[in-house]
Every structure is written in structure tokens, then in C-alpha cells.
Amino acid sequence: MAYTKRLDDRQNDELRPMSAKAGVIPNADGSASFIAGKTTAIVAVYGPRELFPKFKQNPKKGLLRCHYAMMPFSGSGERIRPGTSRRAQEISMVMEHALLPVIDLKEFPNSVVDVYIQLPQTDAGTRCAAISAASIALADAGIPMKDMISSVAVGQVDGTIVADLSYGEESYPGIVSDIPIAMTHNTKQVTLLQMDGEITKEDLSKALEVAKPAMDKVYEVQMKALKDKFSVENKK
Fold first, then answer.
1. Is the residue at 7 inside a domain?
2. Total tally of structural domains belonging to the chain
3. Residues 173-202 pLDDT 10s
4. Is residue 234 part of a domain?
5. Exposed, middle or buried: residue 172 (CB in 10 Å: 0-12, 13-18, 19+)?
6. What is the dihedral of CA 57, 32, 92, 138, to 10 degrees?
7. From its phi and psi, is residue 99 left (phi > 0), alpha (psi between -120 and 50) or beta?
8. Among residues 224, 200, 208, which one has the least CA distance to residue 136?
9. Which residue range forms the structural domain that includes residue 104?
10. Integer Cα distance of 88 and 100 in angstroms
11. What CA–CA distances, in Å, run from 146 to 14, 149, 171, 189, 213?
12. What is the pTM of this model?
């Protein structure tokens, strides 16, 4: 059965409704929320601060640590088991690698920047929402950044290339590929490219082309969140 109409009636290149806000956690050095459809990511940044234990310190540059977690009842399926899981550790590592290319931590030797991610509600695209939110939160914290990182998933559902898959599309009874991507805005450098499923080389190229304008839409949401926060602060 060919996938000719999306389950939520979106166009093939259309993203779920998105919104973001910077400065959502007053006690954090930087924070943000990012909502994509029914997926919500909340991020708090603490640091730069001295890294302990001291044997982990690097005298040449600071360290970035990401801590990803989904709340127990956030998922569309079974209850998420609380505590650290292998999946959470993997996504934490993926986020660090996706964000590091734009962050300059040479000014903060022997220090750490901790990025805490919580997802109170999920419906696919959790790591992409988390990366997009973390990029806003790092900028809100004043961490030196060369560019903004935006993230979205593209893929193929039963032969049709689509952007920003929903949970229903990820679990569609056919051949499905889900490809989370993170990219810098100015240089279009890919900092994350993963894939779950099967896709031909030709269709992968098509999916990557769909990702570029999708990233620009995510970037607009991110920049609006930062501009809204700092425009309000400047008026005070």
C-alpha cells in the first residue's frame, strides 16, 4: 500500500507546528523549550563551572556534557523506565558530537558546561527537538558559538520522501526510514546524520535535499525565541 497521504494531512515537506522559548528556567545559566507537534524538549545549561573530579579537567579547553532523559509517562507507548538507559546515554553522546562543532570552549580550561535535557512529552523526533532546544539554551547562556545548530528528521515512508516524521509514520506498516539530521545554519555543515531503516542511495540524496529548507524553518523558530527574550530584557 503506497503512502500517498500523510496521517496528519501535512504536505510531504511540511513540518509539524513548532514553537520555542528561551529563558524558561530562571535559575539556570541558559535554558530553552522547543516543541515540535506533540514532542516537547526542555533544556537547562549550567556553566562554565569548575569540573570535578579534577583528573577529568583539560587545561587547554572546557568540556561539554549532555544529560538526556525522557520522563516516565512521556512516550506514546509503554511507560519509560526512570533512570539512565543505554538509549539515553547514546543520545547524550550524539548530542555532544552534534553541538561541539560550533562551540568554542578554549576560553574555559578545566571547566565543564552541563546541558540537561528533559522530555515531558514525546511523539517522534526527540533527539532533534533536544538538539534544537540545546542550541537555543547554549546561546542564552552566553556560550561562544560560531553558528546555530538546527535539527530535524527526514525519511521515507513506503516510498514517499517526507520531512519531520510523526510517531505514526515511524511505526507505519511498510518500509520506513527515519533519518535524524543536525546542521549548521550558515555553512550547512552536517553535525549529525543517523538512520533507522532502509533507503536507497538515490532516495537518501533526495531526503537530504528536503532537509535543507526544513532546517531553515527550524532556525527561524530558534532565532525568534532568542530575539523575543532579549528584546524583552532590553526594554526593562
1. no
2. 1
3. 888 999 999 999 999 999 999 999 989 999
4. no
5. middle
6. -40
7. alpha
8. 224
9. 18-229
10. 18
11. 28, 10, 37, 12, 20
12. 0.93
